[in-house]
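Our consortium's second objective concerns turning raw sequence data into structural hypotheses that experimental partners can test. To show how far this objective has progressed, the report includes one record in full. It was chosen at random from the queue rather than selected for favorable results. The single chain below, 490 residues long, was entered without modification.
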Amino acid sequence: MAMDTEVLVVGAGPVGLALACGLRQHGVAVRVIDKAAGPATTSRANFVHARGSEVLDRLDALGELPQESVRAMTITTYAGDRPMMRIRFGDPGLGTAAAPMVISQARVEARLRERLAELGVRPEWGNGVVEIAQDATGVTAVLADGGTVRAGWLAGCDGAGSTVRKLAGIGFPGVKVSERFLLVDGSVEGEPALDRSGTSGWVHREGMLGAMPMPGGQWRLLAYDPAFVEEKPGEEQIADRMRHILPARSGLPGLRLGEVTWASLFSVHRRLADGYRAGRVLLAGDAAHVHAPFGGQGMLTGLGDAENLAWKLALVVRGSAGERLLDTYQAERRPLATAVLRGSTAATRVNIAGGPIGRFLRDQILLRVFSQAWIQRWITYTTSQLWVSYRRGPLGGRGGRPRPGDRVPDLACARDDGTRTRLHAELRGAWAVLGADAAFEAARRRLGDRVVRLHAPDTAGPALLVRPDGHLACRGGPAEFGRWLDGALG
């Protein structure tokens, strides 16, 4: 049966769009479909950590997002009007040119759609998948409108309720972690004005409250409210409840919630897919893992999934690697998701502690510990995900730092003609070699024109082969490059 496309991506959220962009950078034919009638307009996630900004940069999709974002990089926790802890986010000394951003998910998606259009693809809205059939050479997807799409591979990026995951028969076990949170985007008025230089949070016996500044003068308000028992409240009911909570829990009676642009509620669940692959069907993002929003790890982890999968799937589609390479996608990404689920669950339980012992431990012990400078540096380091390494995975290794599998900092480099550039700016659908001509030629023999030669004045010693996702593949000369590529690509 003739192929309609090489990869069918189901889901046009940030993960599906990022995956499609990554595949197109590698020259893979892609179609993107989504059952929604059109792009989402609500903000939903609203923080992109440095690692996420790096992924967008390597996709050449960062654009003007940093200039549009709010530079609110602190979280101050209060008990009433008394500040108890302040954490500052930023570059934890790991060499990134892509800063963290407070910006709505809707705007991130819009920029990814613009980039995907530049690469020749536009999402197809209002048509989801209802049936999947696999065989030895591809996947046939039956769509809601009765049409079919024949693709070599299918990627499910269709969120926590993933139809693709269910049709592929992949389990999604998990547990409920908390009762309801209220989420409201709108204006905040009154005196004293909230500090827009960072996020404010209040611990309160009835539940936590958070206020994060958003672009355009808006605020994101988040409140844990298990006492709110309306079965299916509308946006106005949620907003009215938040109007009561805001002054009561902040201890600032002059604050008022003004015009509301979006209101929602959610309960926190922790779920992890049994596997990220079933034959020619793969999962990424919330289709593979869901967790609490604390720490802003959801979209961040999904973008990392998309980038990791894109270069591997592209090699397989082009016939430059065997399907065994796709097994390393789960091997590298699922352990990270497991760690994120544990961390976000712990943060949720700390934030919603309701009993006297739990509140005492949080308010009197943990907040004091978290006020220590070294703890705050550790939190910034952890939440940025710049620390993520695959050195213990099937493509990792030992040796001097950076070790195979480690992230390589965004080094200042030069091309062969002397033009100045950055390492990560060259990893847009390409591999990079830092070092000797012979090692570069060895990489070209296996990777073709998808590898660039760079010179970094601050590096010495053996040549480095850097993966398209910014992680070190291997170091050494032609022999070491050849062995790694033969072992990894099959």
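The partners drew two points from this record. The first helix runs from residue 14 to 25. The radius of gyration is 23 Å. Both points have been shared with the crystallography group to help prioritize constructs.
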